UniProtKB/TrEMBL annotation:
Protein name as it appears in the record: O-methyltransferase domain-containing protein
Residues annotated as domain O-methyltransferase dimerisation: 32-125
Residue span, O-methyltransferase C-terminal domain: 147-359
Keywords annotated in UniProt: Methyltransferase, S-adenosyl-L-methionine, Transferase
């Protein structure tokens, strides 16, 4: 017998692989989406490099620009407006820009004008809270390259970043100043966003006289804490090649060193986006060094993803939900790509490493951000 079989009135594949024609087509649409998932991030990277969100934002948050007005602002004598049109059309379809067709005042003809959407408002690099440095770092050729090695990591193990770039990420950054800047700027951009959310919800800095930010990058997070609590002496502790590039920040001392060897002393330790970079064994080593650096009455304040976090008040829950609910597991894959054994953790996994690291008691405080706060105490 040949020809398609019928089920519920629609044709289905003869081998019954798909349940229905509808399912087959729906599946094909999803498969195309997966095939070209990179198109959106790279098209966004293009308009960010061209500075298009900034051009529109400079005219006002609700302003619009025509293609010719955008082209006239590009640093090019004869930009390819046809190519630009195609990129903008795609990004309008993706909701990154909005488009409206209006009658042009000068020519009297209809023209398309482009405006910002809530998404592209985050891609304005001239604003203090911007996701541009993160977008550029995550879409740099060297940070995307490790993703191409996942299959080898599954089969043979190893570190994806090292397979792609010949060294693990921190020593690569130490040897490549441009990558070091790219990475540190991306961290600082996230620190600005997260610290705003954190300081609005977390009160745990009140009783401190000193605070050490372990793996603090160029010091953005601890500077924000000290700005909010000027009586705290802030120490920003990171690898020497990172603190060497940090600018002077009021109330913050930069200290270079290796957290696997020692951690400077303070009333409390702050660690944002550190533990997720490391395996359980490495986290326990870091936590033990933190324990040595604080008094019995001290604490560590960890800012990281808790995969199953579902605490906080209703507003926090709503705000957290508004972020992609899969973002935590996306970041877990970012850890496969960029870290040497790191992962995102559930509360149960956090509890295990905290206990082993010398912190028997903890609270999780949810904040309106991807990460949560874990405040852990030695006793
Ligand atoms: C993911 S970044 C987080 C930076 C910062 N805490 C933030 O969230 O913006 C991890 C940081 O850990 C630092 N780091 C890596 N290995 C380290 C070590 N052995 N000792 C101290 N810092 C280290 C890196 O240089 C980097 O700045």
């Amino acid at each position: 017998m040949s020809g398609p079989a019928m089920k519920n009135g629609s044709e289905i594949c003869r081998d019954g692989f798909f349940e229905s024609e509808e399912e087959e087509l729906q599946g094909q649409a999803e498969a195309w989406k997966s095939t070209f998932a990179f198109a959106e991030s790279l098209a966004v990277k293009c308009v960010v490099l061209l500075g298009i969100p900034d051009m529109i934002a400079r005219e006002g948050p609700r302003a619009t620009l025509s293609l010719n007005e955008i082209a006239a602002r590009l640093p090019a004598d004869s930009p390819d407006t046809s190519c630009l049109f195609r990129i903008m059309r795609f990004l309008v379809a993706k909701g990154v820009f909005r488009a409206s067709v209006v009658k042009s005042a000068e020519a009297g003809a209809f023209e398309t004008r482009y405006g910002l959407t809530p998404a592209s408002k985050w891609f304005v690099k001239e604003r203090e809270l911007s996701m541009v440095p993160m977008l550029l770092m995550q879409n740099d050729e060297r940070t995307v390259a490790p993703w191409h090695h996942f299959n080898e990591c599954v089969v043979d193990g190893g570190i994806a970043f090292e397979r792609a770039n010949g060294a693990e990420i921190w020593s690569y950054a130490s040897d490549h100043p441009d990558f070091n800047h790219l990475f540190n700027d991306a961290m600082a951009c996230n620190a600005r966003i997260v610290m705003k959310a954190l300081l609005s919800k977390f009160q745990g800095f009140q009783s401190l006289n000193s605070l050490v930010d372990v793996g603090g990058g160029t010091g953005t997070a601890v500077a924000e804490i000290v700005r909010a609590y000027p009586f705290i002496k802030g120490i920003n502790y990171d690898l020497p090649h990172v603190v060497a590039t940090a600018r002077r920040l009021p109330g913050v001392e930069h200290v270079g060193g290796d957290m696997f060897e020692t951690v400077p002393s303070g009333d409390a330790i702050f660690m944002k986006w550190i533990m997720h970079d490391w395996s359980d064994e490495d986290c326990i080593k870091i936590l033990k060094n933190c324990r040595k650096a604080i008094p019995d009455t001290g604490k560590v304040i960890i800012v990281d993803v808790v995969l199953d976090a579902n605490q906080g008040d209703d507003i926090v829950k709503k705000k957290k939900k508004a972020l992609d609910p899969n973002l935590g597991i996306v970041f877990d894959l970012v850890m496969v790509a960029h870290s040497s054994g790191g992962k995102e953790r559930t509360e149960k996994e956090w509890k295990t490493i905290l206990l082993e690291g010398g912190f028997g008691r903890y609270n999780i405080i949810d904040i309106p951000a991807l990460q949560s706060v874990i405040e852990a105490f030695p006793r």
